[in-house]
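Weekly puzzle thread! Below is a chain. First person to post its structure in token form gets bragging rights.
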Amino acid sequence: MTVATTTYSALTYSGNDATTAFAVTWPFLTGSLIVTAIDADGVETVKTITTHYTVSGGGTTTPATGTVTMLTAPATGTTLRIERATPQTQATAWGAFDAFPQSTVEFSFDKLTLMVQERATKAELDAVGDLSLEIGTVTTGAAGSSASATLTGEAPDYTLNLTIPRGATGASGAGSGDVVGPASATADAIALFDGGTGKIIKNSTYTITAAGAALLDDASASDQRTTLGLSALATASSIGTSDIAADAVTYAKIQDVTATSRVLGRVSSGAGIVEEVTGTQVLDFISATQGDILYRNASAWVALPAGTSGQFLKTNGAGANPAWETQAGGQSDTRLGSEASTSSFASSTKYVAATGNVMTGVTVGTVAGGEGPITTIYYRPLQKNLGAGFVTVSQL
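Winning reply:
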């Protein structure tokens, strides 16, 4: 093939933490590339093919362009330099009367052309008086590192990029001198470190306001709380009753009651949180048993124990408590006693039941042709309760 390019210079690319493929725009032979990574401090590291990058393109019998692919994307601030170093050897030979080796001769000329371009670039660097140099980037290298310079562009116009090592540290191990900052900055903005070296700052655009300066001027967290108008409650892990003003908690801020007919209290034993209590549970707060009567005395609700059988509840008027009363001298109830009967009476004779009894029924016999006489009379005693039990009344 022909070598169409007339000049050669190293290629440089800026890393961005994402791009891995970098074009090689001039022809080269397989195995003739040198790939170097230059960090932000200007420290150069020659990379190893297969370990750090792969190459596609190029050629073994004819030079060609191609691509360098890094296995890890170069970081932002890193410069990737790709150079060509064609082996300066002649490995072809042919004997007398051999057929003309056209491809071999062409390869040799191609290889010589690449070497001439590389030597021409070196010769141009040697002839500094014939070059037009423009100063490009100036990078600060680590203290004690070697200075370096790289040329970009094509002859006779080149850009010179310099890496200059920093001065040695002092006896205490600390450096001295001005830090490196941006060309312009925002007034009153806080300076931030640019990278992890601690030697370069950048403009943050975060300005310190009067309120921020007042906080920075405070000597303690307590003073800062005072500046912000905060009390010690701002750092408390819990809130006590003394932290809440009287009447500060409104009904709207209390948990909703879960159902109707509920009051707030506590039925569980011992002290504890407030619970919802039903009406029955409220009444159970008063000690009472079955048959007791609840009433209000002069100071509280109390239980009146159940009275004995036959007593009645008697009110004693306003300002006095009710009480059970036993019936004395008056009738409290009336009833018919157990039924009895008799068949001992003569025909056509008036029968009178025993004193205090009333007739409750009869049994009528039968005879030929119709009803017969009464055969049995049934009666019950009329009884009244005068407070000591039921007794049969006297004959009316």
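Puzzle host: Confirmed. Bonus trivia for everyone else. The helical segments are 102-126, 210-217, 221-228, 279-284.
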